[in-house]
């Protein structure tokens, strides 16, 4: 069973943070995954006591990917002095939605065949801060509005952004609002900006090839 999730790593010594998502098939919050950033992963493994992971939201892969893009753009993570994120899921460094050819898939498969998983996976599994917490404690930290890792300045910015976007309390997916819906000219489907950019428009499978 796939348990996609949105997470945040917080560095205790600096207050800086990194947000990302895990949406791989059969993934779950205790699977030993660290993060996709090589720089941040190295920092965490070298000094794990200086870092704390918070699971922000658990949901379907599509919802989590869309929510990740929404949060990074709302926080303007790539330009924030408190963020380690290098992008807002808006182009550079972002390969979400990339469709590999069969030739590429075969090359990737051959390259990974027989490769052992790094020791860091076992290390993170054994030292996962969520490992010994019961379900109630895990669920209690999923509500981002009560996330203690946000400082007052960040909460104020998020609040102001939500007001401009017309989001009411407890409503965390702006892509569902009418003013943020986009319709694909190739398949006539209507959706939020995140999935539109990844799967439709110039990337739509129904686009007529010249």
Query: How many helices?
Result: 7
Q: Largest sheet, described in full?
A: 3 strands, antiparallel
Q: Can you count the beta strands?
A: 5
What's the gyration radius in Å? 18 Å
Strand content: 5-15%
Helix content: 25-40%
| Sequence of secondary-structure elements | EEHEHHHHHEEH
How much is the average pLDDT? 78
Strand order of the largest sheet: 2-1-3
Principal-axis shape equals flat
Number of discrete domains: 2
Describe how the helices and strands are arranged.
Layout: E1 4-11, E2 17-22, H1 38-46, E3 51-59, H2 61-75, H3 102-112, H4 119-126, H5 135-140, H6 152-165, E4 182-183, E5 190-191, H7 193-199
Antiparallel strand pairs: 1-2, 1-3, 4-5
